[in-house]
Write a structure and sequence with these properties.
The protein has 258 residues and is of the alpha/beta class. The chain contains eleven helices and nine strands. This is Methylglutaconyl-CoA hydratase.
Protein backbone atom coordinates (compact mmCIF):
# COMPACT_ATOMS: atom_id res chain seq x y z
CA UNK A 1 0.00 0.00 0.00
CA UNK A 2 1.31 3.40 -0.98
CA UNK A 3 0.25 5.02 2.29
CA UNK A 4 1.75 2.46 4.65
CA UNK A 5 4.74 3.49 6.75
CA UNK A 6 6.14 0.02 7.40
CA UNK A 7 6.62 -2.55 4.63
CA UNK A 8 6.78 -6.32 4.99
CA UNK A 9 8.32 -8.86 2.61
CA UNK A 10 9.31 -12.51 2.98
CA UNK A 11 11.93 -14.09 0.72
CA UNK A 12 13.89 -17.29 1.25
CA UNK A 13 12.93 -17.50 4.90
CA UNK A 14 13.86 -13.89 5.70
CA UNK A 15 11.15 -11.42 6.67
CA UNK A 16 12.26 -7.86 5.95
CA UNK A 17 10.42 -5.14 7.85
CA UNK A 18 11.20 -1.68 6.49
CA UNK A 19 10.47 1.59 8.28
CA UNK A 20 9.44 3.98 5.50
CA UNK A 21 8.54 7.34 7.01
CA UNK A 22 11.47 9.50 5.91
CA UNK A 23 9.46 12.73 6.09
CA UNK A 24 9.73 12.61 9.91
CA UNK A 25 12.96 10.61 10.13
CA UNK A 26 11.07 7.37 10.81
CA UNK A 27 9.71 8.74 14.07
CA UNK A 28 7.53 6.39 16.09
CA UNK A 29 4.17 7.84 15.12
CA UNK A 30 0.91 6.09 15.98
CA UNK A 31 0.62 4.66 12.47
CA UNK A 32 4.22 3.47 12.35
CA UNK A 33 3.92 1.84 15.79
CA UNK A 34 0.73 0.05 14.78
CA UNK A 35 2.11 -1.26 11.49
CA UNK A 36 5.40 -2.30 13.05
CA UNK A 37 3.56 -4.35 15.68
CA UNK A 38 1.38 -5.97 13.02
CA UNK A 39 4.35 -7.02 10.93
CA UNK A 40 6.31 -8.33 13.92
CA UNK A 41 3.27 -10.42 14.85
CA UNK A 42 3.02 -11.74 11.29
CA UNK A 43 6.70 -12.72 11.22
CA UNK A 44 6.51 -14.48 14.59
CA UNK A 45 3.52 -16.53 13.47
CA UNK A 46 4.82 -17.56 10.03
CA UNK A 47 6.57 -20.94 10.02
CA UNK A 48 8.28 -20.00 6.76
CA UNK A 49 10.07 -17.08 8.43
CA UNK A 50 13.39 -18.01 9.95
CA UNK A 51 15.00 -14.59 10.46
CA UNK A 52 13.60 -11.06 10.74
CA UNK A 53 15.54 -8.09 9.37
CA UNK A 54 14.48 -4.63 10.56
CA UNK A 55 15.70 -1.88 8.24
CA UNK A 56 14.68 1.56 6.93
CA UNK A 57 14.44 3.96 4.04
CA UNK A 58 15.79 7.51 4.16
CA UNK A 59 18.84 8.81 5.94
CA UNK A 60 17.71 8.05 9.53
CA UNK A 61 16.94 4.63 11.01
CA UNK A 62 14.60 5.96 13.70
CA UNK A 63 14.54 9.29 15.53
CA UNK A 64 12.48 8.09 18.49
CA UNK A 65 8.98 9.06 19.53
CA UNK A 66 7.02 11.43 17.30
CA UNK A 67 7.33 14.68 19.27
CA UNK A 68 4.66 16.43 17.20
CA UNK A 69 2.12 13.85 18.36
CA UNK A 70 3.45 14.03 21.92
CA UNK A 71 3.12 17.82 22.18
CA UNK A 72 0.11 18.83 24.28
CA UNK A 73 -0.93 15.26 25.14
CA UNK A 74 -1.40 14.20 28.75
CA UNK A 75 0.70 11.47 30.37
CA UNK A 76 -2.07 8.95 29.78
CA UNK A 77 -2.29 9.75 26.08
CA UNK A 78 1.37 9.64 25.16
CA UNK A 79 2.47 7.27 22.41
CA UNK A 80 5.30 6.06 24.62
CA UNK A 81 2.68 4.07 26.54
CA UNK A 82 2.48 1.69 23.56
CA UNK A 83 6.24 1.43 23.10
CA UNK A 84 7.01 -1.29 25.69
CA UNK A 85 4.88 -3.74 23.71
CA UNK A 86 7.04 -3.16 20.61
CA UNK A 87 10.29 -3.60 22.51
CA UNK A 88 8.95 -6.74 24.16
CA UNK A 89 7.93 -8.18 20.78
CA UNK A 90 11.46 -7.66 19.49
CA UNK A 91 13.15 -8.90 22.66
CA UNK A 92 11.02 -12.05 22.98
CA UNK A 93 10.57 -12.85 19.29
CA UNK A 94 11.07 -16.59 18.72
CA UNK A 95 12.82 -15.67 15.46
CA UNK A 96 16.21 -13.91 15.60
CA UNK A 97 15.90 -10.22 14.71
CA UNK A 98 18.66 -8.32 12.90
CA UNK A 99 18.70 -4.51 12.90
CA UNK A 100 20.25 -2.90 9.81
CA UNK A 101 21.12 0.80 10.10
CA UNK A 102 22.48 3.01 7.35
CA UNK A 103 21.82 6.15 9.36
CA UNK A 104 21.38 7.52 12.88
CA UNK A 105 19.19 6.28 15.71
CA UNK A 106 18.04 8.40 18.62
CA UNK A 107 16.21 7.75 21.88
CA UNK A 108 13.49 5.16 21.20
CA UNK A 109 15.25 4.21 17.99
CA UNK A 110 18.25 3.13 20.05
CA UNK A 111 15.90 1.12 22.26
CA UNK A 112 14.74 -0.74 19.16
CA UNK A 113 18.33 -1.45 18.12
CA UNK A 114 19.10 -2.81 21.58
CA UNK A 115 16.01 -5.04 21.55
CA UNK A 116 17.19 -6.82 18.41
CA UNK A 117 19.45 -9.87 18.68
CA UNK A 118 22.01 -8.63 16.15
CA UNK A 119 22.64 -5.02 15.16
CA UNK A 120 24.71 -3.84 12.21
CA UNK A 121 25.28 -0.20 11.31
CA UNK A 122 27.13 1.89 8.79
CA UNK A 123 30.25 3.58 10.11
CA UNK A 124 28.52 6.90 9.48
CA UNK A 125 25.60 6.09 11.79
CA UNK A 126 25.41 7.96 15.08
CA UNK A 127 23.49 7.38 18.29
CA UNK A 128 22.33 9.38 21.30
CA UNK A 129 20.13 9.03 24.34
CA UNK A 130 18.82 12.53 23.87
CA UNK A 131 15.90 12.31 26.31
CA UNK A 132 17.39 14.35 29.15
CA UNK A 133 18.07 17.24 26.78
CA UNK A 134 14.34 17.68 26.15
CA UNK A 135 13.36 17.13 29.78
CA UNK A 136 12.31 13.47 29.68
CA UNK A 137 13.81 10.23 30.96
CA UNK A 138 15.12 7.29 28.88
CA UNK A 139 13.07 4.98 31.08
CA UNK A 140 11.30 2.57 28.74
CA UNK A 141 14.32 2.00 26.50
CA UNK A 142 16.50 1.31 29.53
CA UNK A 143 14.85 -2.11 29.77
CA UNK A 144 16.47 -3.25 26.53
CA UNK A 145 19.49 -0.94 26.44
CA UNK A 146 20.99 -1.50 29.89
CA UNK A 147 21.53 -5.26 29.44
CA UNK A 148 23.64 -4.43 26.37
CA UNK A 149 25.82 -1.61 27.71
CA UNK A 150 28.75 -1.48 30.08
CA UNK A 151 27.48 0.23 33.27
CA UNK A 152 29.96 3.11 33.30
CA UNK A 153 29.21 3.89 29.66
CA UNK A 154 25.47 3.73 30.29
CA UNK A 155 25.73 6.33 33.07
CA UNK A 156 27.78 8.66 30.88
CA UNK A 157 25.64 8.42 27.76
CA UNK A 158 22.23 8.43 29.47
CA UNK A 159 23.11 11.44 31.62
CA UNK A 160 24.93 13.58 29.05
CA UNK A 161 22.87 12.81 25.94
CA UNK A 162 26.12 12.99 24.00
CA UNK A 163 26.16 11.76 20.41
CA UNK A 164 28.46 8.80 19.77
CA UNK A 165 29.52 6.99 16.64
CA UNK A 166 29.14 3.42 15.41
CA UNK A 167 32.67 2.47 16.41
CA UNK A 168 31.95 3.35 20.03
CA UNK A 169 28.55 1.65 19.80
CA UNK A 170 30.39 -1.59 18.98
CA UNK A 171 32.85 -1.09 21.82
CA UNK A 172 30.13 -0.62 24.45
CA UNK A 173 27.96 -3.50 23.26
CA UNK A 174 25.13 -1.73 21.46
CA UNK A 175 26.18 -2.98 17.99
CA UNK A 176 27.67 -6.23 16.77
CA UNK A 177 29.30 -4.72 13.72
CA UNK A 178 30.03 -1.38 12.04
CA UNK A 179 30.92 -1.43 8.35
CA UNK A 180 31.09 0.99 5.41
CA UNK A 181 27.61 2.04 4.33
CA UNK A 182 27.86 0.13 1.07
CA UNK A 183 28.70 -3.03 3.01
CA UNK A 184 25.71 -3.03 5.36
CA UNK A 185 23.49 -5.19 3.14
CA UNK A 186 26.21 -7.82 2.69
CA UNK A 187 26.90 -7.90 6.43
CA UNK A 188 23.20 -8.28 7.20
CA UNK A 189 22.97 -11.11 4.70
CA UNK A 190 26.00 -12.80 6.25
CA UNK A 191 24.36 -12.82 9.66
CA UNK A 192 20.95 -13.82 8.28
CA UNK A 193 22.49 -16.75 6.41
CA UNK A 194 24.22 -17.96 9.58
CA UNK A 195 21.06 -17.61 11.65
CA UNK A 196 19.02 -19.54 9.07
CA UNK A 197 21.28 -22.57 9.61
CA UNK A 198 19.95 -22.92 13.15
CA UNK A 199 16.92 -25.08 13.92
CA UNK A 200 13.80 -22.96 14.60
CA UNK A 201 12.96 -24.59 17.92
CA UNK A 202 16.57 -24.54 19.07
CA UNK A 203 16.92 -20.85 18.18
CA UNK A 204 13.73 -19.96 20.07
CA UNK A 205 14.81 -21.99 23.11
CA UNK A 206 18.29 -20.47 23.02
CA UNK A 207 16.83 -16.96 22.92
CA UNK A 208 14.64 -17.78 25.91
CA UNK A 209 17.63 -19.23 27.77
CA UNK A 210 19.66 -16.08 27.12
CA UNK A 211 16.86 -13.93 28.61
CA UNK A 212 16.55 -15.91 31.82
CA UNK A 213 17.91 -14.75 35.15
CA UNK A 214 19.96 -17.50 36.74
CA UNK A 215 19.84 -18.74 40.30
CA UNK A 216 22.84 -18.30 42.56
CA UNK A 217 22.59 -22.03 43.25
CA UNK A 218 24.94 -23.60 40.72
CA UNK A 219 23.42 -27.04 41.18
CA UNK A 220 19.96 -25.76 40.26
CA UNK A 221 21.32 -24.01 37.19
CA UNK A 222 23.10 -27.14 35.97
CA UNK A 223 19.97 -29.22 36.57
CA UNK A 224 17.83 -26.81 34.55
CA UNK A 225 20.35 -26.59 31.73
CA UNK A 226 20.80 -30.37 31.65
CA UNK A 227 17.06 -30.86 31.28
CA UNK A 228 16.95 -28.28 28.46
CA UNK A 229 19.94 -29.83 26.68
CA UNK A 230 18.71 -33.43 26.95
CA UNK A 231 15.22 -32.46 25.76
CA UNK A 232 16.63 -30.95 22.58
CA UNK A 233 19.19 -33.71 22.00
CA UNK A 234 16.36 -36.23 22.11
CA UNK A 235 13.81 -34.08 20.27
CA UNK A 236 12.97 -34.12 16.55
CA UNK A 237 15.29 -31.27 15.66
CA UNK A 238 18.21 -32.71 17.59
CA UNK A 239 17.79 -36.11 16.02
CA UNK A 240 17.47 -34.61 12.54
CA UNK A 241 20.58 -32.50 13.11
CA UNK A 242 22.58 -35.53 14.27
CA UNK A 243 21.38 -37.58 11.29
CA UNK A 244 22.28 -34.76 8.88
CA UNK A 245 25.75 -34.50 10.41
CA UNK A 246 26.32 -38.25 10.03
CA UNK A 247 24.98 -38.26 6.47
CA UNK A 248 26.97 -35.16 5.48
CA UNK A 249 23.89 -33.22 4.36
CA UNK A 250 22.11 -30.08 5.46
CA UNK A 251 19.29 -30.45 7.99
CA UNK A 252 15.74 -30.26 6.72
CA UNK A 253 15.11 -26.87 8.31
CA UNK A 254 17.70 -25.00 6.21
CA UNK A 255 15.74 -22.82 3.73
CA UNK A 256 15.76 -23.97 0.13
CA UNK A 257 18.32 -22.22 -2.02
CA UNK A 258 20.76 -21.56 0.84
Amino acid sequence: MADELVHYEVRRGIATITLDSPHNRNALSAQLRRELREHLTAAAGDDQVRVVVLTHTGTVFCSGMDLKEAAGASAGNQGVNEFPAILEQLWTSPKPVVAALKGPARAGGVGIVAACDIAIAANEATFAFSEVRIGVVPAVISVTVLPRLLPRQAHELFLTGETFDARRAVEIGLLNSAVPVDGVDAEVRRYADMLALGAPGALAATKEMLRQERSANLGEVFADMLELSARHFGGPEGQEGIAAFKEKRRPSWVPAGD
